[in-house]
Amino acid sequence: MARAISPRRKVLLSALAWTIGFLIFFPILWTFLTSFKTEEEAITSPPSFLFFDWTMSAYEAVQRRSDYFKHFMNSVVISFGSTLLGLAIAIPAAWAMAFVPGKQTKNILMWMLSTKMLPPVGVLIPIYLLFRDTGLLDTRTGLVIVLTLINLPIIVWMLYTYFREIPGEILEASRMDGASLMNEVVYVLTPMALPGIASTMLLNVILAWNEAFWTLNLTAAKAAPLTQFIASFSSPEGLFYAKLSAASTMAIAPIIILGWFSQKQLVRGMTFGAVK
Amino acid sequence: MMSPAVLLLLGWMLIPLGMTLYFSLLRYNLLSPGEESFTGLQNYKWFLTDPSFMESIYNTLFLVGGVLIITVIGGTLLALLLDQPIFGQGIVRVLVIAPFFVMPTVSALIWKNMFMNPVSGLFAQLFNFLGLQPFDFFGQAPLASIMAIVSWQWLPFATLILLTSLQSLDGEQQEAAEMDGAGALRRFFYLTAPHLARAVTVVILIQTIFLLSIFAEIQVTTNGGPGIASTNLTYLVYVQSLLQYDVGGGSAGGVIAIILANIVAIFLMWMIGKNLDA
Prior knowledge:
Chain A is mainly alpha-helical. Chain A is built from 13 helices and no strands. Chain A is globular, with a radius of gyration of 23 Å. The two termini of chain A are about 20 Å apart. Chain B has a single domain (about 40-275), classed as MetI-like (MetI-like fold, Orthogonal Bundle), CATH 1.10.3720.10.
């Protein structure tokens, strides 16, 4: 607005915004702080906020439960695995749709998006039985397959929107300058497409890491990622607040940080372009 | 080049869905395999007349509706606030957005154990401090507690989408209206709200699709209980299929869930299609 905002109003609004932001963020902050307390400290009343004896004992206790690292690696393998596999399938598809659109391209794209709207519970039984009979139950491979399929629509969609933003004239110009198809893809297209691919990868790793429905139902002990590990804290260990906080912090911290960098991608990927 | 993606998704759609449909017409219990028999629409009749089905539908509607109301109204207000000139807008955004990236199992447990626990949770300590009786959140109001947790998770999403939409508002139009004497409230109703209406619709549709499938929060906190007080349709089908081994009945429930989701999806696809043309 051209009219100057009174500084008093700005301060008041800022205070309000900061208070609300703090309240919303508080549970995460509290978890982080509690993870550095001893178990006795964690349940004292009144609760201590910042001034207590900070200790790493909760983290050590969680690490000693030797499965933490295994679950962490499972999460890593499953999220990155499904993302990379998804990208491998989606990049050619999105490329074709963005640069060589046909008459049916739009319909195919919409249909792909609609597969994301299928409630997973509708296919829970067949997938469970299929996996059981093919030995894919409780394997990382099985989960990678499922997560690739459920996120493929989003990956294709996001890549499509990023590729569409690459001006076709540059590709034409390079072709006129004598570049072969290979050269065109490697030297002209890829550098321009890399940011889009990176953004898509970022969002997808986050979505796959946090995926709870399939990871809780298709894994038991060997391939269980962090979602399952934390779920095992539901009782009675969940009452050990410091341990719960330590395990939780380790599970969510990387993703929250990644998430902070992916706000724009989130809007683009999750609203399917219906909001600009 | 499109074919691998298209074929895979086609297979993903047809094969499991086909199997679900097929199973829903059988009497198939995992504890007695090999004794399946064709029962036609019996499973559907049974599922639809089971009292737990109606209860789960109410619970689903309560969950979805409650979360939608909180996130859309809260998200709009927050987005309006964050759109104002304030100090450190970036940091507030980062604070507000964080809950969306927390794993559902983690947020459910943190809320249940560290905040809502009636003995040592923070809320209990606060109530005691104020001289009130601590409220047993999950004992007395399991579904509402789950609804609160899910709202906390999705509020950032709604806020972010609505804020993005607000930031594409035409500033000059606002200025012109202001110069013509329109007050803040009037400007909101005639200029801002119609523009936001579109984003709000998208938020509602997308959230509904995901909220129909709330699962992890229920399993980790109440397991659908007490009884079926906090069971939604998704959880009911899960219990039916994987815990009671009734593949036939569970599949019928799954088909019903798909039909419900499709109704919402049709609206969403229509909106996306309109935008794709733009």
